[in-house]
Amino acid sequence: MKLNDFLRAATKRERAEVAAVCNGSVSYLYQVAGGHRFASPRMAPEIEEKTRAVAADSDGRLETVPRQSLVRHPEIYRGVCPRENSGSTPVGDG
Question: Under a CB-based contact definition with an 8 Å cutoff, are residues 75 and 23 in contact?
């Protein structure tokens, strides 16, 4: 799910929960969703994890926003395992 769609479908409380990872700024999330800004490589996984948690509590109304859709260069995440599954950092491409 794209961040723009996530924000549109989310309630005010759900948007605030996700914004907590970016210092409480819902405006920042809208700037990222609109393509006016990009999330940092450190912030993107945090937003992804928070949208996953919020989506899990939404009874299927919301989906996780992938970190690759939030950054300027999504290829930096190629071969990276999600933190909660493996607890590891980047893995080689081959």
Answer: no
* CA dist list (Å): 20 to 14, 70, 77, 89, 91: 10, 16, 23, 24, 29
Tens of pLDDT, residues 40-91: 999 999 999 999 999 999 999 999 999 999 999 988 887 665 554 444 444 4
SS3 sequence of 4-70: HHHHHHCCHHHHHHHHHHHCCCHHHHHHHHCCCCCCCCCHHHHHHHHHHHHHHCCCCCCCCCCHHHC
